[in-house]
Amino acid sequence: QVQLVESGGGLVQPGGSLRLSCAVSGRTLRNVAVGWFRQAPGKEREFVAQISWGDFTAYLASVKGRFTISRDNGKNTVYLQMNSLKPEDTAVYYCNVETAWGRGTQVTVSS
């Protein structure tokens, strides 16, 4: 059974940075795509970033250039480095592998 555990969220001021981690167990990441999604209060869950098994990456237009997704296959962990954070980035961030989802980590950007 695949299990995903997100961490690294918190409260940060606008312009600040956070690095989210997604630790995966029960499934190797070497040949699978991993995605980050987010859901803000009152809004639908939306795609944020994805890294493919070949390390190709894709991003939501509004985060491109500010967020970077990466993976460490040895640690079976995927990261989301978030820089220049804005209040509109406030959301619960979720990790996804195939049909498995983590419980999410809260990111709040506020002064």
Give the helices and strands, then pairings.
Layout: E1 3-7, E2 10-12, E3 18-25, E4 34-39, E5 46-51, E6 57-59, E7 67-72, E8 77-82, E9 91-97, E10 100-101, E11 105-109
Parallel strand pairs: 2-11
Antiparallel strand pairs: 1-3, 3-8, 4-5, 4-9, 5-6, 7-8, 9-10, 9-11
Describe, in plain words, how this protein is organized in 3D.
The protein is mostly beta strands and 111 residues long. The chain is 0% helix and 51% strand. It is built from no helices and 11 strands. Strands 2, 4, 5, 6, 9, 10 and 11 form a 7-stranded mixed beta sheet that branches. A hairpin with a 4-residue loop joins strand 7 (67-72) and strand 8 (77-82). It is globular, with a radius of gyration of 13 Å. The model has no long low-confidence stretch (mean pLDDT 96).
Which properties best describe this structure?
11 strands; 4-stranded antiparallel sheet; 51% strand; 111 residues; 7-stranded mixed sheet
The overall average pLDDT, rounded, is 96
Q: Count the beta strands.
A: 11
Estimated radius of gyration: 13 Å
Uncertain segments are: none
What is the compact description of this entry?
The protein has 111 residues and is mainly β.
